[in-house]
Design a protein that fits this description.
Layout (H helix, E strand, L loop, with lengths): L4 E2 L2 E2 L9 E4 L8 H9 L4 E4 L16 E4 L11 H9 L1 H6 L3 E4 L1 H9 L4 E3 L6 E6 L1 E2 L1 H6 L6 E6 L1 E3 L6 E5 L5 E6 L2 E4 L7 H10 L1 H6 L6 H28 L8 H4 L7
Parallel strand pairs: 3-4, 3-5, 5-6, 6-14
Antiparallel strand pairs: 1-2, 7-11, 8-10, 9-12, 12-13, 13-14
Helix pairs in contact: 1-8, 2-4, 6-8
């Protein structure tokens, strides 16, 4: 059981000392709530920004795990740093070390595993809070999932072959998946209140011009309704992801349905 929450963070964290590799994609990007929760769990953060030429480590020996965050880019972009990040994902997969991809980081993992990443066929996006549904595999991993989670994306991805679907949605069916110790989340449990203010201000045009996007007012109304559950789920997930045995992944032939991001 997790220690009690204090101001949204875990109190009395263990001090195992291993850093977590953090991969960010912009000069103003931060690890947000995930960074706060990892520090509260006793981990320092090694922050790298490959977009500015910073290299990723050749091995995750000496790291507790790695988190690759979202950004304005697409996993289909031809930029050198995007291709290098996608190729680098062979490291956590080969070494069977904990990896967590958030939004773009999840799309990169899907692409590395051979799945298609693409926009919604009708140009729809998920910007704001939207419902998700955990699968049986997702419930075995975490018994309580939030009803709604925060999104900011206009691309989705197919479920990679051989992986396990953990949560599904509407316009973008694949919301969370797993292969071994690597996980991809299409949504953004990392978003703090300050980040939401910044994103909805700087991204105002994207909100207005994306079919299916929630209004700025709806973002903050949704936060009041859904954020506590998403925060509690994140803390439980991160603790299990890094520190506790995970339930075995079922055979893909019996547990996985390949869903396109339609």
């Amino acid at each position: 059981m997790l220690p009690p929450l204090e101001n949204g963070l875990i109190s009395n964290p263990p001090s195992d000392g291993l850093p977590v590799l953090i991969v960010l994609h912009g000069p103003m990007s931060t690890p947000g709530r995930i960074g706060n929760a990892l520090r509260a769990l006793g981990h320092s953060l090694d922050i790298r920004r490959p977009v500015f030429g910073e290299a990723l480590p050749e091995t995750l020996d000496g790291y507790a795990g790695a988190v690759m965050f979202g950004g304005p880019n697409s996993a289909n972009d031809k930029d050198t740093f995007i291709r290098r990040e996608i190729d680098w994902l062979a490291v956590p997969l080969k070494e069977q070390r904990p990896y967590l991809g958030i939004c773009l980081g999840a799309q990169m993992l899907a692409k590395h595993l051979g799945a298609r990443v693409s926009p919604h066929p009708q140009g729809r996006g998920e910007i704001g809070y939207y419902p998700i549904r955990p699968t049986d595999a997702g419930l075995r991993l975490c018994s309580h999932w939030p009803d709604h989670v925060y999104h900011w994306h206009r691309e989705g991805f197919e479920l990679p072959a051989g992986t396990e679907l953990l949560a599904e949605g509407g316009d973008f069916p694949v919301q969370a998946f797993r292969t071994g110790h690597s996980f991809g989340l299409q949504f953004h449990p990392d978003v703090t209140n300050a980040m939401m203010h910044r994103w909805t201000t700087r991204g105002h045009d994207r909100i207005q011009n994306t079919p299916g996007a929630r209004t700025r007012c709806e973002h903050f109304a949704g936060r009041a309704l859904y954020d506590a559950a998403e925060r509690a789920w994140l803390c439980a997930f991160l603790d299990k992801w890094l520190h506790r045995p995970l339930p075995a992944q079922e055979d893909a032939s019996t547990s996985i349905v390949s869903l396109a991001a339609e």
